[in-house]
Amino acid sequence: MAPMALSASAAILPFKRISGGSKLFNSSSKTFGVGPNFSSLKTCRGSGLGIVGLASTGSRNGGFVDLSESETPPRTYAWPDNKKPRVCILGGGFGGLYTALRLESLVWPDHKRPQVLLIDQSERFVFKPMLYELLSKEVDAWEIAPRFSDLLANTAVQFFKDRVKLLHPSDHLGMNGQMASSCGGTVLLESGLLIEYDWLVLALGAESKLDVVPGAAEFALPFSTLEDACKVDQKLNALERCKFGKDSMIRVVVVGCGYTGVELAATVSERLGNRGMVQAINVNTTICPTASSGNREAALKVLSSRKVQLFLGYFVRCIRRVGDFEASVKATESGGVQDVAAEHDSEKYTLELQPAFKGLESQILEADLVLWTVGSKPLLPPLEPCNKPHELPLNARGQAETDETLRVKGHPRIFAVGDSAALRDSNGMLLPATAQVAFQQADFAGWNLWAAINDRPLLPFRFQNLGEMMSLGRNDAAISPSFIEGLTLEGPIGHSARKIAYLLRLPTDEHRLKVGVSWLAKSAIDSVALLQSTLTKVVSGS
């Protein structure tokens, strides 16, 4: 029962499904490996092991990367106290930030309290389950994307805004099960900073996978990060200005009808109202196939009421920009697009849909905006063939294989959480890439780091599915808690319950207080505006 007691304080309310994370590796990088020793680089504390960085001007040799003579040697980060444990956390999403805060909250012996360094490419933590509220103007960016510097101001956790260039673990187990080095390894950042660590947490998250369909990377917008949400909002603003006062409608196509796609379709359709048409595509014959029946039915009801057109049982064959000769010809022959050049105000796109099941016909859709919510890829690139003992064991998706204590197999000094970890449940199924999973894993990772540093037994992670929540608009949501079978809260009640749940999940007490006051003020203003509108109608009617 120990794992249950451990997570009770941090996992009492349900989370919605959402994938993605904090991007640290340069997405153009295709390698993630280790190299030979160089005497010019500082070695790990108490060992003779060195590290070599990836050099843009260097040369490759058998899977290794050599630094050229002109390459500047990395600068070594000076930890405040080399006698205390050094914990480096890569990624500042739910897994990374909440692990750091968990470490900060635990009681430590003075000589064993670790120094914690958190690294992320962004200066802001993003509460991703509430990105939809940015599109509906229900929240402000600072409420769901506070700066790390503000969140960590009253802690001893240090934050660096940077990207990881190379990881060199030196804690690999030898043939006799003993560690090859007394230090955990080193991390080289793109800024040239070299960081030694005793313990490492991989919480790198994932990014949208747009390279599976021709044209998706060029013409579709993902919805996974704060930057993605801002781009979508800016595009919708531009389309709303462009179409203002005109008869033509704003056409938005959402690819994917999982949780993210359905929530996005519901939010955008509510925002556009009668000015737009939202179409959603899914390869399955139903939306949210893994959702509870209550959540699915609530979502279908909302999508139907907002006239969202569902194309179920289809996959996207390609996306083309209207104006391209081949796309125009195909669209004309199919009769799916008429008068392609009628609108010159903004770019338009055509999507060719291929049926996934017999009995369905191919379709061609036209869109002003294509939103992509299908697929994600972890940000741990594949390892190049090199010194085998140093490699991290990765699965086919690029996630690090971990044991039940969240330690990477063969590397007792490295923990992995969230999208970076490949951990299976009791049925042998990989745990889903959700905020709920990452949040619970962060709680256990923090505790197990404490146990490892203090030579205590580590606890096995056991995921507790607390239910799912969906945002369906400004005053609409669906929530199905797992602890009450068959119960689904929807509409305004579900919306309020969801906001309260997420308010309690915000990172720090200070931020929760600020956001809570802000939301109360907005609610009061909305109530006054609604009352004034009602009184005006009553007076005018009399």
From TrEMBL:
Keywords: FAD, Flavoprotein, NADP, Oxidoreductase. Residues 86-442 form the FAD/NAD(P)-binding domain. GO terms for molecular function: NAD(P)H dehydrogenase (quinone) activity. Transmembrane segments: none annotated. It catalyses: demethylphylloquinone + NADPH + H(+) = demethylphylloquinol + NADP(+). Its cofactor is FAD. One of its GO terms (biological process) is phylloquinone biosynthetic process. Its EC number is 1.6.5.12. Pfam families: Pyr_redox_2. It comes from the Eukaryota. One of its GO terms (cellular component) is chloroplast. PANTHER family: ALTERNATIVE NAD(P)H-UBIQUINONE OXIDOREDUCTASE C1, CHLOROPLASTIC_MITOCHONDRIAL, APOPTOSIS-INDUCING FACTOR 1. Belongs to the NADH dehydrogenase family. This is demethylphylloquinone reductase.
